[in-house]
User: Fold this.
Amino acid sequence: MLLVDDQELMRMGFRMVLGAQEDIDVIGEAADGLDAVQMADKLRPDVVLMDVRMPVMDGVEATKRIAEADTAKVLVMTTFDMDEYALSALRNGASGFLLKDTPPSDLVSALRAVASGDAVVSPSVTKRLLGRFLGDGGGELRDASMLDVLTEREREVLVLIAKGLSNTEIARKLFLSEATVKTHVGRILAKLELRDRVQAVVLAYETGLVRPGDA
Assistant:
């Protein structure tokens, strides 16, 4: 994996935590977004752990370029006062985001999930973030007619994805097999031309299918 943060002490801390894991190798470090894009292209890491506010090029633009080139998955790090950056990163191809005070065990689990092709979606943080910039008047809703391509069941599944449920939890709630849920998720992403579950969550909120505070 590639570590990207303009603070050397922060990179050192992450490197110490991740270096203790047998299945995680830190193959490079970058102090700004431009360097991150170039190193990702050269080193081809499975995952880039990306800060957002950096000199030369911020993490949002770097995430966009890495996602467009499909050189690596990007997991964005943010703090509570930088929610807008995190949302922008998600819209530009990040596979998830974490808060910088995330416990080490959760960070490791998130990196493994992203490396395996999953997206990291924290229901509580996602609702707060999208509530601030979408549901609470911070942004205009998108045309929900794009969801008309979905079947009724697929819409149900999308709602539950947006609420942060895993495939196993969705299967249990809808009385379906996990394989069936996985098929529905794949069809939703294909029909809506979405990269992963994170973008599905963002779209569900942006179209008003799910609103912050929904149970």
